[in-house]
UniProtKB/TrEMBL annotation, chain A:
Gene3D superfamilies: Hotdog Thioesterase (3.10.129.10). NCBIfam families: unchar_dom_1. Pfam families: 4HBT. The lineage of its organism: Bacteria, Pseudomonadati, Pseudomonadota, Alphaproteobacteria, Geminicoccales. Keywords: Hydrolase. This is Thioesterase domain-containing protein. It comes from Tistrella bauzanensis. Residues 55-128 form the Thioesterase domain.
Automatic annotation (TrEMBL), chain B:
GO terms for molecular function: hydrolase activity. Keywords: Hydrolase. Pfam families: 4HBT_3 (PF13622). Residues 59-141 form the Acyl-CoA thioesterase-like N-terminal HotDog domain. It is an enzyme of class 3 (hydrolase). The keyword Hydrolase applies. This is PaaI family thioesterase. Its EC number is 3.1.2.-.
């Protein structure tokens, strides 16, 4: 499996194409994309470790991967490129991640309404049975291009 | 390298979570520092450009805010537990309330229920104004 070239997709280019400190720091890559679907790969990097004795990733790394995958899936489900914002995200941990292995996350949009999109996601290691984590989230669509706090 | 349990023990004994934050690579990336407020533990996440998720809005990534909330919740459990254990996250639910600006973010927790096997924690994150939280989370940790 090879990462996608994100240059031709305006939504992806806006996330991955430009110089993005977080995405490049985490090394996230889009593996697959379709309408309402995104598969993202996360490499194992030393700074992501939550337990230095076991090498297991910090839970926050999973949250970052899943939030990113869900956000991309929502972008692909919209008729035009609009700003979005995570409203809520629930993550269930089935088991600890396996140290030194790459994580995959697949996010699928279940429903898009004029204001809100609903997404489910799961994360797993290739070659291992069953997900490491599953997630459900909702996203606001068409958030203003200002900080919500200032707009309120 | 200091063991996690030693770091936990040290942080518990003097309420200084520097040892624990320093022992964990990801909390070093988050740029966390613990401060004792009035009888509570407050975590400060120092802003770094790598925390930005939206370049146009210059907003913190949802995963980074979630990372702060989860770490603050977990550390609070470690602080209040009777024995040294490494709690495991079962479930975390994050509510995003306002976008996070590129400044330092704070988080504080309270334990809703400390059970024998499961702890339920509520954590809130804010920036300049504590009465305007940017996110909150409810987490369940296994302490078996």
């Amino acid at each position: 499996m090879t990462p996608m070239n994100t240059d031709n997709n305006p939504a992806l280019k806006s996330i991955f194409g430009e110089d993005h400190p977080l995405i490049s720091h985490f090394g996230m890559e889009v593996m697959e994309i379709d309408k309402g679907l995104a598969v993202v790969r996360l490499p194992y990097r030393g700074f992501m470790v939550g337990n230095p004795e076991t090498g297991v990733l910090h839970g926050g790394v999973m949250t970052t991967l899943i939030d990113s995958a869900c956000g991309i899936a929502v972008f692909t489900a919209l008729p035009r490129l609009q700003p979005i914002a995570t409203l809520d995200l629930r993550i269930d941990y089935m088991r600890p991640s396996t140290p030194h292995k790459w994580l995959m996350a697949r996010a699928k949009v279940t429903r898009v309404t004029p204001n809100v999109a609903f997404v489910v996601a799961e994360a797993w290691h290739e070659g291992e049975d069953g997900p490491v984590a599953t997630a459900a989230g909702s996203f606001m669509i068409g958030t203003k291009l200002t900080h919500r706090e200032d707009a309120a | 390298m200091i063991s996690l349990k030693d770091a936990i023990e040290r942080s518990r004994s003097n309420g200084d979570f520097t040892a624990l934050n320093d022992a964990v690579p990801y909390t070093r990336f988050l740029n966390l520092a613990a401060e004792e407020g009035e009888g509570e533990l407050i975590f400060r996440m120092g802003y770094r450009p790598e925390h930005i998720g939206n370049q146009v809005l210059r907003a913190l990534h949802g995963g980074i805010i979630g990372s702060l909330l989860e770490t603050a919740a977990l550390s609070h459990v470690i602080w209040e537990m009777e024995q040294v254990r490494v709690p495991k996250t079962i479930t975390i639910t994050i509510d995003y309330l306002r976008s996070g600006r590129p400044v330092d973010t704070f988080a504080a927790s309270r334990i809703t229920k400390m059970g024998r096997r499961v702890v339920n924690v509520h954590t809130t994150a804010w920036q300049d104004d504590r009465s305007k939280p940017i996110a909150s989370a409810i987490a369940h940790f296994l302490i078996d």
